[in-house]
Amino acid sequence: MPKLRELILDFFRSETKIESEVVAILKESYDREYISYSFILHFFFYFLLLLPPYFHLIPEVLPFLLGITVARLLLLIQRKRKDKYLKNLIFGIGMMADGLFYVSIGYALIKLPTLENFYLSNAYLMVSSILILLYSMRLNKLSCLIGAIYFSLFHLTYIGFMPETLISETSFFARAFPILTFIGSGFIGSIFIINKRKNISSLYRLSEERRFMQQELELAKKVQDALFPKDLVIPGLRYKYYRENPNMIGGDFFDFVQLREGNVGVFLTDVAGHGISSALVASILKVLVSTINYRNKLSPSKLLDFLDERLVKDLNKYHASAIYLFFDFQELKLRIGNAGHPYLIHCPRGDSYYEIETDGAILGFNIRHPIAVEKTVSFGSGDRFFVYTDGLIESITSSGMELGTEGLLQILNKHKEIRKIEELEAAILADIKSDFGIDAFLDDTMFLILEIE
């Protein structure tokens, strides 16, 4: 009962602005579908000529059926008209066709008034409920009810012309029973229309929300893209980076920290999670790195300690891995601080790529102090460093296994003779796709190639 009450209230309640707009947009297309399907369906009416008593009355009944065909064809031809004309045509020509169908059924009983034909006609008349339910393809709330009332009035008229012999042999309930099916069909069809209108409005709202979110994501992507270094010249260092985010934006981020005396810091982080929240945290980390005390920028361990404390204090629900590289071009030394991040990969000039193992814990949990143990290595002209996020090595290959560090080192060493880092980037991506069958990265992925000039 509560559900029925809700449906009745839905029928009489005023539409919201969104519902009105959506219905106005879609009403014509649904009306055209109704016209097309009703045209196809009416051909089944000709099967009446194969049923008793109509096969005895083909010359008399056939003109009614041909009239239905003409009416439905006229409606089909006019289906491209605008809404207000289309609505009038459906109620005018459509109702005329439905009336002809009703008359074609009732005619047999008037012509051959037997008790057997009465019950046959009643059964055939109840088929008219299909025509009423067909109106539920439209979005007009009154369509089915108007159809039900229309057929009910026809039937009351039909009862009025029924021969006295049949009236005396049948009960009023038997004579009026088709009206119950008409009204019931009108009610069911109206419920269907109400629910359909509600569902369409809900889908429209979801579509609008999705479109809005997509616009917000595109804007967020532009903002995040603007935060990445572009055409930045770093004296003594060439670089090339690649990044891919399945969700348009993500928590993988890197930045250069330009220092005095030509030295430079390289910060790269991978914030846990995906999407907008991770991207925002990554942006916050960028700001923190940019504004941190200058002395801390010279010490990877202190810089990472500071970020760990801030994440715990300000964003205790988020954690991230990070690596900070301090290139000292005066002493040709690289100081590495690694907070739970994949190891830095180094390739001395003319040699092979290998991992530099470091010790550190992930940011955001305040696990230890210092969060990372610094490690120092020497570098020279032509040396290359490869730093990346775990999305690269966790990608699933065609064999069903992760690419892994071994697979990555295999690719890097295969192309260690390539002179230009731009060509190296292309070769890495090509091998990942061709040799390992990885067409797309499922996680946020970034790698950065650094070469000492």
TrEMBL record:
Molecular function in Gene Ontology: phosphatase activity
Alphabetized Pfam families for the sequence: SpoIIE
Organism of derivation: Leptospira ognonensis
Record InterPro entries: Bact_Sigma-Reg, PPM-type-like_dom_sf, PPM-type_phosphatase-like_dom
Transmembrane segments: 34-55, 61-77, 89-110, 116-135, 142-161, 173-195
Keyword check for Cell inner membrane: no
Protein name (database record): Serine/threonine-protein phosphatase
Alphabetical UniProt keywords: Hydrolase, Membrane, Transmembrane, Transmembrane helix
PANTHER family in the cross-refs: STAGE II SPORULATION PROTEIN E, STAGE II SPORULATION PROTEIN E-RELATED
PPM-type phosphatase domain boundaries: 234-452
